[in-house]
Amino acid sequence: MKKNILFILFIFISMLSCQQDIPMVSLGIDNVYAIERMKALILHPEFPGERYEWSMIDSQGNDSLVSTDRDYIFLSATTGQFQIKLHIADSQNPVDHEINITVWEESVAYSRYISKVYEYCPAPGQFVNELPLYQDGDTEETMRQKAEESISGKNDVLVSLGGYGGYITFGFDHTVVNIPGEKDFKILGNAFYAAANPNPDAPESGGSSEPGIVMVSFDRNGNGVPDDEWYELAGSEYNKPETKHHYTITYSRPAADHIATPDKGTPITDSTYIPWTANDGTSGYIAKNSYHRQDYYPKWIQQDQISFTGTKLADNAVDESGKGTYYVLYTYDWGYVDNHPNEKTDKISFDIDWAVDSDGNKVHLPGIDFIRVYTGVNQQCGWLGETSTELSRAEDLHVDDSSALPNP
Q1: Which of 21, 77, 139, 194 is at a distance of 20 to 30 A from 133, taking alpha carbons?
Q2: Is-contact 124 305, C-beta < 8 A?
Q3: pLDDT for residue 407
């Protein structure tokens, strides 16, 4: 009997010893992964630590530190074999882990062009309900579909975002990879330089520039919906004192008994057509003109007020005639949609590394899944009407397409 008790005690102590050698909690990261290129792999270690160090082995076999965040997002635009090392610094339980990742070619070739429009939410404007065309019975969903038909693939039909804040959200059939030192995507609009630009020293500085601000988002939760955090691509005007951040504007639908107030002798048929107010204490109207007689307020929206919040750029229009007959809308240097003509590829292209958070701090994104463009200026230009960003197509600059159409 005594021998049996001693034997059982020995077995129990041995089991405790073995259990101490086996981690009770999994690291949560495998040793081997295989993924398609331009698809994100989020590596999340379950072990807590004082510091995290992710390093990648380069072609010469050297370790290069790539991140000190707890989570590491691996994303590659090319195929091949990749080795990653994770070191979790901890005074009690340091951890070292190696990961091998195989990146293969996608089974169906990715498209260079937009594949999906997720949202189309224009502000009031003279081209709203026309680009794309509203028809009786259209809803938010059918208008989204029309916007998608206009700008997806190689389609090249303009969509108008209306006045300040109006926006569109779209994406590709893959994650757009952030390639260091390179522009990552471009967006086409309908900006042009004016032959009669009165500034002979800068012939490319003005004409019709209706700048739109770009926001980007990475699908961190992996649900395929643009509900993750958004980041602004900080263009040339972002840090200028005349740029307003956290600007909110609210537009109101004209009352049923509204009486038009035309400017006699001009094409403006109603100078007090759609009222707006902003959180900086300013207010004004989107005027109606004789060139566009349809409703300017989005007809599929049921609410009588719509609001938008974002960064507002300084006005860029100058009445060079002094009589309200000739406006020049001057370009900003870089970083905005519908700001330079489409043949200026570098000027209409965007770098994901320009991303900043809501407080203006730079952030690093390995890639993006969603892009949002909104009209960035709130200005009325006499008979020209409000400034409204238009766009017609977007392209991932890292996806080759031998059949790509030339820029219009």
Answers
A1: 194
A2: no
A3: 45
Assess contact for 243 and 313: CB atoms under 8 A.
Answer: yes
Q: How open is the CA angle 158-164-167, to the nearest 5 degrees?
A: 50
Handedness of CA 258, 263, 267, 273 (dihedral sign): negative
- Please tell me the distance from the alpha carbon of residue 340 to that of residue 362, in angstroms, as a whole number: 25
Return phi, psi of residue 143, to 5°.
-70, -35
Task: Give 206's contacts (C-beta < 8 A, 6+ positions apart).
Answer: 193, 194, 197, 199, 318, 328, 329, 330, 331
Quote the pTM value: 0.91
Cα separation, 150 vs 127, in Å, equals: 14
By the 8 A CB rule, do 379 and 389 touch? no
DSSP result, 360-399: S-B---SEESEEEEEE----B-GGG-B---EE-EEEETTS
Closest C-alpha to 254, from 238, 235, 264, 269: 269
Q: Looking at residue 202, what is its pLDDT?
A: 66
Characterise 130 by phi-psi region: left (phi > 0), alpha (psi -120 to 50), beta (else): alpha
The edge-to-edge listing of strands for the beta sheet with 355-356 is 116-121, 167-171, 370-375, 212-217, 231-233, 355-356
pLDDT at 196: 74
Going by C-alpha positions, the residue among 242, 250, 216 that lies closest to residue 335 is 216
Low-confidence ranges of the chain (pLDDT < 70): 1-25, 200-204, 402-408
Q: Tell me, what's the pLDDT at 201? A: 66
- By three-state DSSP, how is residue 14 classified? helix
Rounded to an integer, what distance in angstroms lies between the CA atom of residue 27 and that of residue 95? 9
Q: Are residues 304 and 397 in contact, defined by beta-carbon separation less than 8 angstroms?
A: no
Residues 6+ apart with CB under 8 A from 302: none
**Residue 394 and residue 188 in contact, taking contact as beta carbons nearer than 8 Å:** yes
Q: Is 162 left (phi over 0), alpha (psi -120 to 50) or beta?
A: left
Chain-centroid distance of CA 221 in Å reads: 17
pLDDT tens digits along 104-144: 999 999 999 999 999 999 999 999 999 999 999 999 999 99
Residue 156 phi/psi, 5-degree rounding, is: -140, 50
